[in-house]
Amino acid sequence: MSLFKSKSTPFITEKSRYTTHYTSMKTENIFQILLILIIYLTLQPAEGINCYECVHNNQRVKRHNRYVYPCAEFDNSDKYIMKCPDSKLCVYQKINLSLADKQISVSTMDGCTPNTTNQQRYDEVGLVQEGCIRHNSAYKPPSSEYCYCSYNLCNHAAPPNISFSIWAIIPTMYLIARYGFQGPHS
Predict the structure, then answer these.
(1) Which of 14, 23, 64, 160 is the most exposed place for a label (fewest CB within 10 A)?
(2) Full residue range of the structural domain in which residue 103 is found
(3) How confident is the model over 121-137, as pLDDT tens digits?
(4) N- to C-terminal Cα distance for the chain?
(5) Is residue 109 in some structural domain?
(6) Distances (CA, A) of 159 to 48, 75, 109, 116, 122
(7) What keywords would UniProt list here (predicted)?
(8) How far is CA 146 from the centre of its chain?
(9) How many structural domains compose the chain?
(10) Domain with 122 in it: what CATH number?
(11) Quick one: DSSP state of residue 157?
């Protein structure tokens, strides 16, 4: 029996024990924060939603006891934000007009839907769901697409085609794949 430790036997120092414990605590904290973030982002707001709203023409108009400004002048300022306490969806509209030599697209931010935040009432009436609906009419040449989204200010210029929640899940999956999941250590 040798008095010295062999090179193949790991020698654990206080520093390496601290580093291992610190790393696992850091990983646990990351996962706790990400879990809280995902839960927060996927919950529907109970008190309503904030949506962007603008008008097609070049003049401001009074609507809902407030001025609504032209989409052409949109500058991300608060004057374009509409508070929608009784709604849970914002609306975005894209109108396509085919002319002889080109196609013109006009985008609008139409504020919020008349939906209610009361889920039972929402289910009874069968109001619109999150996603996009295309309208093609034989009587009206322009086709239009209405998109509905469910998080604050989601109807900005070109809303995403996938739920905002997915954007919270993607980084989580990346971190799990990169660092792995380390459960609590005893």
Answers:
(1) 14
(2) 49-159
(3) 555 555 577 888 777 66
(4) 33
(5) yes
(6) 19, 16, 10, 21, 23
(7) Signal
(8) 17
(9) 1
(10) 2.10.60.10
(11) S
